[in-house]
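SAMPLE LOG
Freezer: B-3
Tube label: C17
Construct: single chain, 129 aa
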Amino acid sequence: MDMPVGEKPAADVRDYLAEERTCLAWIRTGLALMGFGFVVARFGRFLEAMQITRGGSAAQPHGLSPWFGIAFVAVGVAVNLLSIRRHLRVVGELNRGQFAGHRSSQMAVILALFLALVGAAMALYLTLA
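STRUCTURE (predicted):
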């Protein structure tokens, strides 16, 4: 059966399931960022405890570790909130037959840029500490 020129095919179940998988992948990414942020935030305390158990005095606290951790947790929360927004928008587009799947993922680009910047800052911090 041929479709008239200019009409888009209606979304089927596979489109909705693919969008649900994409949303779940973004949620996993957000959760991983939050978990990693927690580990980074507590890493300074771990180093202090290791120094004390070796019989030394408490190591000087490094104030950046909690801030890097908080940044990762905050970005993880933002990724999860934006994934909800994106999912609702894309499902709405699928329902209206307006989905344009050729767009690049702006959220992925912004997240990758943020992670690159924070990773470079952490590498610099570890080099200078």
